[in-house]
Amino acid sequence: MKAKGTLIVGAGVIGLTLAYELLKRGQAVRVLEQSRCGEGTTRAAAGMLATDHELIPALHQLAAASRQLYPDLVRELFNETGIDSGYKENPFRLIRGHEEIQFASVGQIDPVQLTRSLRHAIKVRGGVIEEQTTVTGLLRAGATVVGVATSNGKREASNVVVASGWGSEALLATSGVEIATVPVKGECLAVRLPGHVLTETLFSDDVYLVPKFDGRIIIGATERIGDETTGVSVSGIEHLLQAAARLFPAIREAEIVDIWSGIRPQTADGLPYLGQVPGVGHLFVATGHHRHGILLAPITASVLADEVTGITPKYELCPFSLHESRRNTNATHH
């Protein structure tokens, strides 16, 4: 089956936001997802858009630009779909030891609602999303990628973007492209606390609490380096609840409504892989965002869409490239 345009592997927030951006630019888009949209790392995210204290300096410019894109993005999505992505501004308090830093207004998003709105908008604009479709390899004609092999047959395209999170490394290897990432499992839970309203996001080195517009409070997240299992451990949830109670004692009275985990791909230097693969035509990558996929999704979509459509990106991609020297550096660290 021949499909013109761009094929995106992975329907997390990175892949879906890129698909939406390309569709707005008049490109034909097909998205392939092995499970369901947003069921992987995206679902595990709390949706905070203020993580400068976690970011290495090389990411500050992209993060700032991405935050600026969010209000317009969610407004466009709401106008097209009627789905509220849960974007709001609320106070954010960073707590480290006896030190507390107050931020009067910081943005956040609901990853599940954002996924729903992106999925709907993509279909409204004529994009194709194939869920329950496992991509087993990249198809090459010489030095050019021409499509992918899937559990449901071949899919051909003019461009292929690998944005499948932790699965990206193995998929790229089928075409001889090496990157170096490690899985970092994050465990989270959601609670409801009738009678107690948390109006600010609380963040410490051990835990964060993020109040959502529907009354839930997201508590997260563990970091289990090297763990690619999908379960949730008792010890992980116990640690989060104890740390949450130290920040907000009333949380002990809350009702647990959901528990989940997600696997984040992390690179050795802390920078995502972003851009075209050197020496391989029409193959692009967006992975390795670790804890910052939600925050960086709009700017990732913007710069990748520029690359795919042949426009010089507004932001320097060199630190995020897949050049061999960086891949080798990452490999030696792992």
What descriptive keywords fit this protein?
alpha/beta; eight-stranded mixed sheet; 8 helices; 29% helix; disordered C terminus
Question: In short, what is this structure?
Answer:
The chain is of the alpha/beta class and 334 residues long. It contains eight helices and 17 strands.
Description:
The chain is an alpha/beta fold. Helices cover 29% and strands 29% of the residues. The protein has helices at 13-24, 41-44, 60-81, 111-124, 168-173, 234-247, 293-308, 324-333; strands at 6-9, 29-32, 88-96, 99-108, 128-130, 135-141, 144-150, 153-156, 159-162, 182-192, 201-203, 208-211, 216-220, 224-225, 255-266, 273-276, 283-287. The strands form three sheets. Strands 3, 4, 10, 11, 12, 13, 14 and 15 form an eight-stranded mixed beta sheet that branches. Strands 5-2-1-9-17-16 form a six-stranded mixed beta sheet. A three-stranded antiparallel beta sheet has the order 6-7-8, with no helix packed on it. Helix 1 packs parallel to helix 7 (293-308) and helix 3 crosses helix 4. The longest helix is centred in the N-terminal third of the chain and has 22 residues, at 60-81.
